Each structure stands twice: as C-alpha cells, then as structure tokens.
Amino acid sequence: MDLTAVVTFFPLPQDRGDPVRVLMMLRALARVRPFTLFVVRRPETTTAQVAELRALLPGVTVHDFVATPYRLNGWGPLGRYQESLLDGMPPWVRTRYSRELHDALRARTGGGLAIGEAAGAYVRDVPLRWHWDKANVLVASSRQDIDEADGLAHHLRAQYLARVSARFEAQALLNCATVSVTSDEEATRLVEAYGRTADFTLPSCVPLPEGHIPCPIDRRLVWLGSFSYRSNLLGLHRFLAEGWPTLHRAGYVLELVGSGLTASIRAGLAGHDGLTVTGWAPDLRPVLARARAAVVPLWSGAGVKLKTMTLLAHSVPVFGTPIGLEGVPPTEATRSADTAAGLADAILAATSDQLDRMAGAALRVSRESFSEAHFADRLVSSLGRHGLLSEAASHEEL
If pLDDT is split at 50, 70 and 90, which confidence band does 390 have? Predict the structure, then answer.
C-alpha cells in the first residue's frame, strides 16, 4: 500500500520538541520502506534545509509546500480569525495550512500518516486510510489556556480558540482510522473528551548524544525549553518567583537555554539575580555537560516532554513537576514536586552522591525507554498491526 506522510512544520532545524519527534518518525519509517512526504515549509525554511532533509531520508520522495497566505490578512487578527473559522481550523493551524498540498493529496491513494495536530486539517476530507499521530489532545490543552488567561480579552480569546479547536479535533478524529498519543495520561484525556480510545501510545524519543562527556559544575542548574511556548514561560516565571530565591541564596546559578528568546523576554528576566540567559544553543552538549541538575517547572502542557528526555539523555538529573515528568517511567533519575518551593527544597536536599546516582539512572532510562531504536520498533510494529505497513516490512529491519 502506498504511504503518504504529512508534516505541517518543517522539521529542520531541530530547535524545539515537535521537529525532534517528527524527524525521528520519518527516519524510522525510511529505514523500513519507501514513502512520500508532503511537508510545509516554515517562513524561514531555506532550499539548503530542504536538500538536507532529502539527504536524511534516503528513498523518500519529498514534496515541499509553502503555507497559503490568508486572504483576509489585510484586516489583521479580525480577518485571520474570521477566515480560519470559515475554514474550520484554529488560527495557528490555518497559519501552517497549504491549499496546494491539500489539492495534491486528493490524487493520492493508500494510507496516510498525519503527524501532529495541524495535520488534522487534511484528514477531514482526503479519502486515504489515515493514522493521526497526536502530540497532545487539543481540547485539554485549550482548557488549560483558558485557566491561564490573564485579563478579559485574553480569556475571551482563549475560550474562542478552545471551541474552534474542539470542533476541529472532533471532525478529524471522525475521519481517521487510527490514532496514537504520547502518554497514558493523554490516552485518558482522549477518552474523556471524545470517547475515543487511542490505538497505541507512542512516546517520543531523543538521540543519545555522541561524544558527550558530563563534567558537571557544583550548584549549576539548567532550564531547557522554547521561550515562545507560553506554558514554558509561565512555569519558568513561577519558579523564579517562588523557588529560585532560596536556591540563589544557597549559591546556585541557573542557565536558561532554548529557542524563541526575544528582547522583551530577556528584559522580563533581568530582575532575577543568578541567571545566565543563553537562549538558543546549536549544540547542547557543552551546555548540558556542565549542568549538575535540571529543573522542569511546568504546571500546564500535555504529553511526554522532549526537554525532559533530552536532559535525561545527556545524563542530567531532572527535578520537575508531575506535568514536566509526564510519561517518564518511575526512575531514580528524577525527583517530583508539585510546587516551585518544593522543587527548590528537593534540589537543596539532594546530596552529591544522590545526584551522581541520578545521572547514571538518567542515561539508563534513556537507553531503555526513549532510544531511537526503541521508538522505531514501537512505531513500525504498531503501524504494521493497524494496516499502514505490511507485516513483512514491519519485521524486515527490526
């Protein structure tokens, strides 16, 4: 059966969680069988990056598309919201949507693999046998946005987006044959919201860093994440306000690393002492090699967190909230606390020997549960069981 994969956010560069998961999926499939990839460029995607993606996916036919501009963009947000509503998509999905890609899909036959929430735009009316790989359940994350809204305008906007997202998600689920989620918690959210049982759970994975040699510096902590993701930034500011002062007085320093750092965000962090605001780091190995431990302060968000797995793969002990540690099996590598003060207390209580044992356990759990080989085996065998890959192909390589 022909297989067409659809990706609505170009997976290079690997500057946040979604592109990491997407590229892992595509590379795992490419090792097993040929397929066709339809991918939407980001506004800044270059021809060189398209060529790099093709080189990373031997045997895969790659078709790249640009997102279709809003017809009503001249009216500003009012026009964009009206147009996305008419198209039956949340505005952020419509921003990644390509009408040219949609039209090209209608000529395809066989199976379709829709990767990520925005790819649900094509599931709704293209008659392939679709599998939808979901990073999170939109109706649940949209409700979190309502709870976090500050001010009447933001609250009304969040309520509007929640309604549009729920309608979009429900329609796509009606038209996909199978669906996967990233954690057992997300599977529960899917059942609670739609009465739909996930066909399988597929946690994300991260590559083990080659040549990485940890040389941790005592009392040096790291925070890793995209600054442009609202839940990350809210969690960071809460931790800095409620947990960081105690750690700073004890002599700790905290390095902040990730994409999406703007001048305004940097200015908003300037009032906190003891921070090193690094921003985007093209190679995480030297940054994470010097971290004694990491903090993942999240009170909203869904699914397995790529930041958490990246830290563990680099042998960094992780102190996180239950949401920050979602999908990570019980392991000595992590410590959990519900509050920012609790995270600070847990870090202060950890002895040097305990941190050493946590670092060793971090690498073990990465190899056992989140390795590329483990991910590929689970992906291919699961898709094979549900008819998107032949059984012969499912076992040929793995």
Answer: low
